[in-house]
Specification:
Elements: H1 2-63, H2 72-188, H3 193-217, H4 221-275, H5 278-300, H6 308-318, H7 320-331, H8 341-362, H9 376-516, H10 547-554, E1 561-563, E2 566-568, H11 570-588, H12 596-620, H13 625-644, H14 656-667
Antiparallel strand pairs: 1-2
Helix pairs in contact: 1-2, 1-9, 2-3, 2-9, 2-14, 4-5, 9-10, 9-11, 11-13, 12-14
Length: about 675
Amino acid sequence: MDNRDKTSRELEWFDLETRMRELIHNQLEPVVKKAREDREAFQGLKVYCKALENRLKSMETAVLGDQNAETIIENIYKRCAEIEGNRKKDTVRLDQNFVLINESVNSFNVEIQKFNERLDLLDTRDHERESEIIKTNQNIEANRVHVLGEIDKLSENFREMNRVYQEVAMKTEEQANIATAKAIANSIEMGNYKREIDVVRKDVVESLSMIKEVRSLKLNIDTFEVESMKVQNRFLELLEEIQKYKDELSKRDQFIDKYIPLQTVILISDYLYAIIDQGTKKKLADYENIALKDLNLKVLEGREVVSRTKRADQILNDMRHVEERKVEFQTKEIKSVAKGPNFAEIREKINIKKKNTFMSHDEPEVHTEAPPGLSKQEVEKIVQTALTAQLDPEIGRLKSEIKVKLEGFKNYLKSFNSESGSMQSHFVSELENLAGRLKLLKSDLLLEINDCRKDNEILKKDIGGCQNLINSLSQMVVCLFEYNNIEQALQRQDEEDRHNMALNMEKELQSELALHTPKANDATTLPSANFTFKKNCLSCGTSNSILSGFRTSIVYNPSSLIFRNKKFERHELLRIKAQMLRKCWDANSKSFNLKYEEIQQDKSSDKITEKSFDKSFDKSTESRPTRISRLNSIDEGTLETKETLPLLVSPSMRNRSQRKSKLVHKST
């Protein structure tokens, strides 16, 4: 497309040049022809006047002798010389004006060529910028789609983890309900001691199996860490790709800043060496020596890559002296004496004709001897009559011809001035049209540059939003990790406390068995049962050591925990966990498009199952206000966070106070 545009512009310029030459030739051809005819007629008149002058001189010498008296023909000759001088001055002035017009036309042609070159450069730069902008938009769009896809995958993984946590919580709550039902059945059926022991053993076995199942259903922290490491590695890869792209942009800008000026200097140098003479080439070589040294030093030095706006300001500041020099040469008066080739040939022909006429007049004339002269008075009469008869019409005819020729020459000057004015106005209109087109092109380029800047700003904002989203996700991951650590510490405490309670119960059973078993040397005693009852049993009036395990569970107070090398109570860790999740959610909830209605719909099934336990819990808490109030404060905090935040449901969120309060109520 560039070659076709260039050839079409060259053809248009060649057509314009040929039409201008034809116009100038058609305007000058009749003028030159008329001037040639006038010069030929003038030469004929000059020869005729020379002959008349010779005849009059001969007559005057014959009549007057050698007296120095001013004659009529001498006056006529002086007048003709003045007219000829004025004519030559006018021709010289017209030649100078024509040369000035030719020089202005040539300078205008040079300016048009420069303007065409600038338009070509602007077109190439525009195409390059469009291609670069398209590439950057494609890369940014691909990165944005990739980042959004990764974020969607991460959100899906979080939702899947939340669903798994909810399933585990439902299963653990079902197992807890079964265990409470079995404990109630055991407290009702304590009448038969052996049956009670078997039932208790079965419950212990089932509780152990339940503990194993709960352990197997817990979230594996290794898989969580592996997934989190994968996500972090993927984010690091994205950051490396973005950094590589930024490095490529900086390298491209550095190449443009360093090597494009060298390429421009090469093109200008080749163009100037092709058109200038040898003396100017020497000056140009000296200047290029200094300029190329500076450019090479700038290429070799390792400086920072400035921004595009700063670089544009530097180029505009460097361009000021070019504008000043251009204005100076445009406003300076042109003093040139160059002559056109056509007028030089015409002058040479005129000079040759003048030399031929002068050589013809310088030849000696042959005079015949006159007959014996008349008297003086007769001669005077004859001369007067001849002069009056011949010179008067000739002088009148000469005057009339001179007037006609002067009027024609004045009309020609007027027509030439009008034609030159029309041509000048045409040139000015063409220049104004070109200036308007340049302004339109500049405005279009500025609009496109502004659009590109706006697109870049929008993309930067999108990238900043993605970065903020990634930061919020990383904060949520850290928060979940800490939450899981606290949860594991609490679960370990639960396991240890259960184990200690089972050991205490087993020890008490063994001690009761040791007290009531008969000794080996006592032969009079009868063999007794494995377990004996005290008189304090509610069902049979005897004592039962199995109740000690339930007593220890009633009086159970959780032990302190060591977390992050600090000592915490259980309720403090629960409060810290709830506060941490609340703050993390308040700080990052605006970055997610998760609605509260969706969370409430997911939790509607959990609330239905909880209502049945709330009624029995309210009835059982009336007898234990102090112990239950402390447990309720902890459970209320967890329930608030559960209702206000999209929490990951864990096994520790079950309400242990309900089961313990029920056992207390039944045992009492």
